[in-house]
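Design job #97: recover the sequence.
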């Protein structure tokens, strides 16, 4: 009986894990990787989107008897495009360092992930537009820091009275 593996199980070991991320990371930017399964979404190039797709399935197991059929269509991500952020990339690096087996694939994969992290780090500090939620009293205020520093957020009422001050120590967002 021939089993078909889901595209996220790049190395076909019945488990989606850091080893699959490393196969992809070792081939980042290549149109013709040595392992063609590294192009998880079949878009013709191994890139961060392939990493994101696999990362969404980390710890998924492929059942030994009943394996999901390989979907020839490019996988889609819930909610549309995914923003790749430094925290996600750093998480992949941390996972990879824990499972690093010293192989050339892991070395190259870690190097590529670290390059990807550097390329996604902000170069200047910015306060971005906030996102209001009209259905509850919350708002999300995104910002980017070019270097680790303490962040202080002061919240004022409509009449200018200070309501609350939040301090976030040495954090890069």
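Job complete. Output follows.
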């Amino acid at each position: 009986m021939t089993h078909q593996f889901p595209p996220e199980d790049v190395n076909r070991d019945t488990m989606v894990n850091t080893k699959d991320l490393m196969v992809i990371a070792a081939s980042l930017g290549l149109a013709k990787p040595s392992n063609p399964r590294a192009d998880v979404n079949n878009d013709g190039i191994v890139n961060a989107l392939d990493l994101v797709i696999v990362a969404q399935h980390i710890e998924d197991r492929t059942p030994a008897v009943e394996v999901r059929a390989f979907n020839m269509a490019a996988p889609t991500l819930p909610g549309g495009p995914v923003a790749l952020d430094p925290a996600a990339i750093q998480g992949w690096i941390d996972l990879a360092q824990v499972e690093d087996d010293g192989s050339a694939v892991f070395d190259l994969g870690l190097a590529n992930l670290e390059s990807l992290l550097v390329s996604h780090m902000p170069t200047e500090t910015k306060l971005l537009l906030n996102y209001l939620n009209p259905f509850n009293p919350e708002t999300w205020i995104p910002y980017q820091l070019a270097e680790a520093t303490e962040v202080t957020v002061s919240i004022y009422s409509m009449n200018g009275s200070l309501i609350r001050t939040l301090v976030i120590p040495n954090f890069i967002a």
